[in-house]
């Protein structure tokens, strides 16, 4: 049964496969074509409620924990989305409006979408990368490529602003790492 939706399911399926290109060595399994996988995934997404479809980033984070060179198939993606959506059902059942905070957790999607250009530049200075969903990190990379001309590596540098430079790093090493990241972008903008 298809649900009435305002979402562009084909666009979301394309975003999912664009995300998978960066995360996996092999985007499809043997004998599969990317375009056919996108169309199949799009049709399967139409059967899910909107809140479930929008949880695709968190679902793919869970799939990534399995450590495989092969990207998940459309069926595996749908199963992961459905599993992730079950954790959100209680929130959706209460018909909560979209806010910056839900259950004392930041809604990073809402924060990203409502941010201006300066806030988007500082997004990973203000928020730690390990707390931000993967799909928002993907949007950050995509936004910077389109609007700032950054390479994915440069976006990853900014995303890793709060990342420890090495195991058991002390505050001095962390401060040095953060200074180097900021200095890189200061010099880049000066050129």
Task: Characterise this structure.
The chain is mostly helical and 191 residues long. 62% of the residues lie in helices and 2% in strands. The protein folds into two domains: 9-93, no CATH class; 101-190, no CATH class. It is built from eleven helices and two strands, in the order H-H-H-H-H-E-E-H-H-H-H-H-H. Strands 1-2 form a two-stranded antiparallel sheet. Strand 1 and strand 2 (105-106) form a beta hairpin. Helix 1 crosses helix 2, helix 2 (34-45) packs parallel to helix 5 (74-93) and helix 4 crosses helix 5. It starts with 8 loop residues before the first helix and ends with a helix. The relative contact order is 0.09.
Q: How large is the count of helical segments?
A: 11
Rounded Rg: 18 Å
Mind summarizing the main beta sheet? 2 strands, antiparallel
* Share of helix, binned: 55-70%
Enumerate the strands of the largest sheet in spatial order, edge to edge or round the barrel. 1-2
Strand-residue fraction? under 5%
Q: Pick out the low-confidence regions.
A: 94-104
The averaged pLDDT comes out at: 81
Total number of beta strands: 2
Question: Can you give me a brief rundown of this structure?
Answer:
The protein has 191 residues and is mostly helical. It is built from 11 helices and 2 strands; from the N terminus they run H-H-H-H-H-E-E-H-H-H-H-H-H.
Topology:
Blueprint: H1 9-23, H2 34-45, H3 50-53, H4 56-64, H5 74-93, E1 101-102, E2 105-106, H6 108-114, H7 117-121, H8 123-126, H9 134-147, H10 152-159, H11 171-190
Antiparallel strand pairs: 1-2
Helix pairs in contact: 1-2, 2-5, 4-5, 9-10
């Amino acid at each position: 049964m298809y649900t009435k939706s305002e979402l562009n399911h084909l666009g979301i399926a394309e975003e999912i496969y664009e995300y998978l290109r960066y995360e996996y060595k092999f985007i499809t399994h043997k004998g599969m074509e990317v375009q056919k996988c996108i169309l199949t995934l799009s049709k399967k997404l139409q059967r899910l409620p909107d809140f479930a479809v929008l949880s695709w980033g968190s679902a793919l984070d869970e799939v990534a924990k399995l450590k495989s060179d092969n990207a998940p198939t459309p069926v595996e993606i749908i199963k992961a989305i459905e599993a992730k959506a079950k954790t959100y059902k209680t929130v959706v059942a209460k018909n909560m409006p979209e806010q910056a905070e839900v259950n004392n957790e930041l809604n990073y999607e809402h924060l990203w979408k409502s941010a201006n250009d300066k806030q988007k530049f500082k997004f990973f200075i203000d928020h730690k990368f390990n707390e931000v969903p993967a799909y928002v990190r993907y949007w950050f990379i995509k936004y910077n490529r389109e609007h700032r001309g950054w390479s994915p590596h440069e976006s990853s540098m900014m995303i890793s602003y709060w990342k420890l430079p090495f195991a058991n790093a002390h505050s001095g090493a962390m401060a040095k790492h953060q200074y180097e990241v900021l200095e890189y972008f200061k010099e880049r903008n000066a050129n």
